[in-house]
Every structure is written in structure tokens, then in C-alpha cells.
Amino acid sequence: ILLVYMYGGGWEKVNNVDTVMFDDVVKNAKTGDLIYFHACDNFNSLKILTYYTHVGMVVRKEGELYLFEANAVGGLTLRDHENKKGVYCNLLIPRITKYRGFIYYMALKNPLTDHQINDLNIFIDYALKNFYYEERILQRALRQLFASEKLGHATNCCELMYLTFIKLGILKIETLNTKYWNSYMLVAYNSSIESGKYYKEKKILNYTF
Questions:
Q1: What phi and psi values does residue 86 have, to the nearest 5 degrees?
Q2: What is the pLDDT of residue 8?
Q3: Residue 125: phi, psi to the nearest 5?
Q4: Which distant-in-sequence residues (6+ apart) come within 8 Å of 167 by Cβ?
Q5: How confident is the model over 84-125, as pLDDT tens digits?
Q6: Using N-to-C axis directions, what is the helix angle for 157-168 and 184-194, rounded to 10°?
Q7: Is pLDDT at 195 greater than 90 in this prediction?
Q8: Which residues touch 163 (CB under 8 Å, ≥6 apart)?
């Protein structure tokens, strides 16, 4: 049933969304836009019961595009300048072109204000210094559900986006007290759609696969 749900639903997702060319994303992407990923080299969709397996936020700074994200560090060879704790804000283009899977672009309807961008940059700096990736996602989800553990320095990609939504005012801070019965990946996705601040995602075409 799970295979039919994830991969049948995934096939529908792959084929029934609008598309956008990679060049247009690079040209038009702005701070606050979202990049959703669906991996084709692992079974993370089955583990977290969602089509999307990763998410990050675009940051445009001095003409360059970056991706603010949290990711597991196990098995990775990191360069000296890269954060060893699993929270990154690295160049977006190589991140996309090296990814083995499908990638989707979700654009903000209205650009962030200068004040919001400043707040976001402060939050990113704080996260890079203080947050770390929690690889035990299932155990953490159970602690949040049954032991009322709050979101904090131990994080993952979707929890990081959830906190970023709160920082930007896309979600109200009171939602931190909400208990969710599904994964934060689905919560993050639904929040971005239901907020009314984002357009529907589009599948990115014409990047190296």
C-alpha cells in the first residue's frame, strides 16, 4: 500500500505539475523562494511518508544564489569551509546540478521586505553557529508527539524551514505549540501552500540529472 501511495502518487506529482526551465529559476529566484527535492537514489519517501524528501530556502546575496538547508552529514566529505554540523547556506547551482532526483521550485508571490531579509540573514547566521542536524528523525518525531519536545537547535530540513517560516511571519509563533501527527516535511509543504504567500511548485527542467 505504501509503495502504491508513494510511487503512484509520486508519478502523478511528477507528471501533473507545471514546469520551469532551470535558466529561468537562476534568473528570477529571490530570497525566500523554496526548493523541494525528491530523491531517486534512496527510499526516504517511504521513511517519511511524503513525496518530497528535502527542502531548502533560496537566498540571493550580492548576485549569487544560495540554498539555506539542513542535511545529514554522515558519509559526506566536507570541505574546510563547510559546516560540520549539517546546517548550510551554500551555492544553489552546484547543489541542484549534482542532485540525483527531481527538483521543484516554489516562488514567493511577493518579495520579502528589506526588514524580513535582514531578519532572515540574522537567523541564518544564528542557525549556522548553533543548530545541528538530528539524524534520528523518527525518534525525534515521537518525542515531539508524545513528550512535547519543542523545535530547537536539533533540527532537520523541514523543521528548519518551519522555524524560518515563523521568523518571516509566514507562520505565527503560536504554531510552535501545535502537535502534528504527520511529518514536518508535509507540515512545511502544507504551510507554504496554505499561507497563500507561495505559488504552486513547478518542476525544474534542463539541469544535469
A1: 95, 10
A2: 42
A3: -60, -45
A4: 119, 120, 123
A5: 688 999 999 999 998 888 999 999 999 999 999 999 999 999
A6: 30
A7: no
A8: 123, 151, 155
